[in-house]
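Blackboard transcription, Thursday session:
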Amino acid sequence: MSDPITDPATPQAVFGKEAVTEALADHVAIGALQDLITDAKWDRKELTLTVAPESIIAAAQAAKAAGYNFLEDVTAVDWYPSEPRFQISYSILSMGLKQRIRLVARVHGDSPNIDSITSVWPSANFYEREVFDLFGVRFAGHPRLTRIMMPDNWNGHPLRKDYPVEGYR
Amino acid sequence: MPTDLLEKPEADQRNKPMTHTPGVRDTTGTNLAGFRSAEDMLIPGVEDVVAESTSHHHPHGSDPISDSTMVLNMGPQHPSTHGVLRLVVEVDGETIVSLAPDIGYLHTGIEKTCEAKFYQQVIPLTDRIDYLAPMANNLAYALAVEKLLELEIPERAQVIRVLFMELMRINSHLVWLGTHAMDIGALTVFLYCFREREQLLRIFEAVSGQRMMTSYIRIGGLALEPPPGLMDTIKTFLDDFPSKIAEYEGLLNNNPIWISRLKGIGYLSGEDAIALGVTGPPLRASGVDFDVRRDMPYSGYEKYTFNVPVSHDCDVWARYVVRMDEMRESVKICHQALAMLPALEGQPIVANSPKVILPDREQMKTQMESLIHHFKIVTEGFAVPAGEATSSIEAPHGMMNYYVVSDGTAKPYRVHMRNADFSNLQALETMCKGRLIADVVAVIGSIDIVLGAIDR
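(Written on the board underneath:)
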């Protein structure tokens, strides 16, 4: 058995838009989002499609039209100090195809802004409020973007990497 | 007072029952979402409820009483909100005009804490998320990390995982049934349910040393070898349990109060459920036939034969029926798992990966290499290859996903939990609108929320 620590990449892992498109030519999501994706990754049997933050609504609509009917999750990863620092991850499931994809958009830290996809999936409401609360990413077009976990007068966004684990002094 | 007070909200577009082609039922739910425009389905926030309530006053109306609405605060200490859930409710008489949940009272920053711990130290934190099914959390987290590590889990460990997952489901559903019935006013059922739950807690204690915060499922396998004779105890429990389900049903199924409080209450159509992110028993009670165990199997669920209970009634009663049937199916799965175990006797309970999994005590005390591995894992953890992974399991409350991002070090870069409770709560407004305030209690009971899982 190969040592899982010294042997990082899955043999089947494919990186880059061209390579993934070639390796997974008949994948429904790749066909539907072909024009929108800027980068792609097939790793550990999970498909991650990167789109530009401006086209997130279009990408969500295209995915929904292709049969990915269920929005599971919206969350973020803070890659501080590299820029664009916020990776917004959307986990989308197709109940018919029994497949899930991960849509990713990278947002710059200066004025973290991305369009809300509540117009495509109303369930994004709470998830986007949570990302706003804990990461400080603003979602344009969200019906009411307020803090959901922390108190309204809280200072800072706790899940940012430059926020200390035990809070500010 | 207008006579059509109860009918009034029915005219609202947002509460209209589904009207698509009869006869053609889309059980996969693929075509259901998007049936109505998403904007119509947005739920209000607390501020919206308060702000909009003023616009519902009609100072020049004929009847001063019916022409004003009232904003009520329910919780966070209300016993029927199953924890610290606060609801801001606008009522017209006793009818719900609008409602918004306010959460975060139990937010403890578990996701932030995870980033400061070694991978193996996160396991006890996951117990505290959905504390009625701790092993489900353990498993979802372990599966995500195992995906990153590409570990192969021995067959025996997988069977024991499935066995305890289903016992956890029974455990969680028993608490749901007991508290749900107590909210409706049937105290006896609560006592009956906790009688059986006590046996389950003793089984969990026997296997892990803890009644509730078990931390039993670890990265790479299981924490401990099950004690001898435990499988016989489980078998005795399982043989007895279907008669107990019949007992609960005997108390409830023909109870006129139970029927009138549950039937036709909290209507949630299939397409609304999908659009609002509802999963688990409430989704299947709305006619959408999706279960992660069957449709996207993990831990060897494809080897078990079981039914996925689905109901098309879309109300609180349907959720009750679905969960009761799920308990019976869980008993079936447990029996199959128990039958598989004797043939797997002698297999280890952890994967063969000495740099990730702690060696057993005997090896650690006698072998130099094991001692080094033990020291390294405890003091510096183990590095996980860079990447991101999502695991998905069917927890008792619905779909539970763990999203783990690694930067190649011994501490997770990001751990995110997607719990069914959080998104199921979003459907509360849709289910309660236009109904009576007493029905809110029944509906909260029927979506079976745990605030630990919502607030994290």
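Lecturer's comment: The two ends of chain A are 49 Å apart (CA to CA).
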